[in-house]
C-alpha cells in the first residue's frame, strides 16, 4: 500500500491506494487516527485508487467513524469504486459511513 | 468429477495475502467466472486466510497456510488449510448489521462475508490438528 497524506487544518485528506487487506491496517489506522487527533473538522478518505478492502479495513473505518462522531469531525469516504460500494452495501456500512460513489464509471 | 488441483503454500505473514489473492483470482477467472464472482471468491479466501494468520496462528508469521483450488462439477472449490490453533467458527456471533454505529460489535465481519459471498462454507477440524475451510461457489450461480 502506498499513501499520500496531506493535512490542511481544519481539513485533512488521506488517499490510500491499491489493495487494502489486513496487512494495510496498521499504516491506515495510524494515518486516520493521527488526522483525527489533530482535531480537524473535516476528514476525507479518497478511495479512487483503492481496488479492494477487507473486513479488517472496514473495521478500521468503523472505529474511525466512531471517534469522528465523538469529536464532531465530519468523516467522509469519497470516490468509492462500484465493487467496493457493493461491499459496503452488503454489510450495511453505506448506512453508517458517509460514502459517495466514484464519479468515473468503471468498465 | 474433480479437476486438477492448483495450490499455493505461504507462510502466515499478512504480507502474503496479496499473493494468495492473485493466485485465487487467476484460477477463478480461468474457471469461467464473471469478474464479479472472481472478486467475491478472492474476498472470501482473503478473509479465510486472514483468520488463519490472525486467529489460528495468533500473528505468528512462521506458520503455514495452504490454499488449494479445483473444479468439482460446476463448482469452483477452494480449501484453506492451516496448522494453527483450532478455530471454532460457530462461537463467533453473526454481526448485527442493523444496529446503530455506537452499538455495533466490530467482530464477525470476515465470516459474514465468507458465508454471504460463497454458496457453501464448511469448517473442518482435521485429526492432525489445525483448521480446514472448504468453500464452494457455483460458476454462473447467484451473485454472478
Q: What's the topology here?
A:
The complex is a heterodimer of chains A (107) and B (144).
Chain A: E1 2-8, E2 11-20, H1 25-37, E3 42-46, E4 50-53, H2 55-71, E5 74-80, H3 82-90, E6 99-101
Parallel strand pairs in A: 2-3, 2-4, 3-5, 5-6
Antiparallel strand pairs in A: 1-2
Chain B: E1 6-11, H1 17-30, H2 35-56, E2 64-72, E3 75-82, H3 109-117, E4 120-124, E5 131-138
Antiparallel strand pairs in B: 1-2, 2-3, 3-5, 4-5
How would you characterize the overall build of this protein?
The complex is a heterodimer of chains A (107) and B (144). Chain A has 107 residues and is α/β, with parallel strands linked by helices. Chain A has one domain: Transcription Regulator spoIIAA (2-Layer Sandwich). Chain A is 36% helix and 34% strand. Chain A is built from three helices and six strands, in the order ββαββαβαβ. In chain A, strands 1, 2, 3, 4, 5 and 6 form a six-stranded mixed β-sheet that branches. The radius of gyration of chain A is 13 Å and the shape is globular. Helix content of chain B is 31%, strand content 25%. A five-stranded antiparallel β-sheet of chain B has the order 1-2-3-5-4, with helices on one face. The longest helix of chain B has 22 residues. The chains are: A alpha/beta (107), B alpha+beta (144). At the A-B interface, helix 2 and helix 3 of A face helix 1, helix 2 and helix 3 of B.
Amino acid at each position: 500500500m502506498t499513501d499520500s497524506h496531506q493535512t490542511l487544518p481544519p481539513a485533512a485528506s488521506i488517499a490510500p491506494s491499491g489493495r487494502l487487506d489486513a496487512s494495510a491496517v496498521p499504516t491506515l489506522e495510524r494515518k486516520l487516527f493521527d488526522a483525527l487527533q489533530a482535531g480537524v473538522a473535516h476528514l476525507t478518505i479518497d478511495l479512487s485508487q483503492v481496488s479492494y478492502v477487507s473486513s479488517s479495513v472496514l473495521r478500521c473505518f468503523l472505529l474511525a467513524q466512531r471517534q469522528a462522531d465523538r469529536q464532531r469531525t465530519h468523516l467522509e469516504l469519497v470516490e468509492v469504486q462500484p465493487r467496493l460500494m457493493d461491499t459496503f452495501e452488503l454489510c450495511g456500512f453505506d448506512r453508517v459511513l458517509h460514502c459517495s460513489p466514484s464519479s468515473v464509471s468503471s468498465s | 468429477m474433480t479437476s486438477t488441483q492448483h495450490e499455493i503454500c505461504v507462510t502466515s505473514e499478512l504480507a502474503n495475502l496479496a499473493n494468495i489473492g492473485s493466485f485465487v483470482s487467476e484460477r477463478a477467472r480461468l474457471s469461467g467466472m464473471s469478474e464479479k464472482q472472481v472478486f467475491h471468491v478472492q474476498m472470501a479466501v482473503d478473509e479465510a486466510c486472514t483468520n488463519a494468520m490472525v486467529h489460528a496462528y495468533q500473528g505468528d508469521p512462521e506458520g503455514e497456510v495452504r490454499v488449494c483450488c479445483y473444479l468439482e462439477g460446476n463448482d469452483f472449490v477452494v480449501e484453506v488449510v492451516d496448522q494453527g490453533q483450532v478455530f471454532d467458527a460457530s462461537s463467533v456471533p453473526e454481526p448485527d448489521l442493523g444496529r446503530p454505529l455506537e452499538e455495533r460489535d466490530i467482530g464477525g465481519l470476515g465470516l459474514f462475508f465468507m458465508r454471504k459471498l460463497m454458496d457453501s462454507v464448511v469448517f473442518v477440524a482435521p485429526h492432525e490438528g489445525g483448521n480446514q475451510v472448504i468453500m464452494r461457489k457455483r460458476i454462473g450461480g447467484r451473485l454472478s
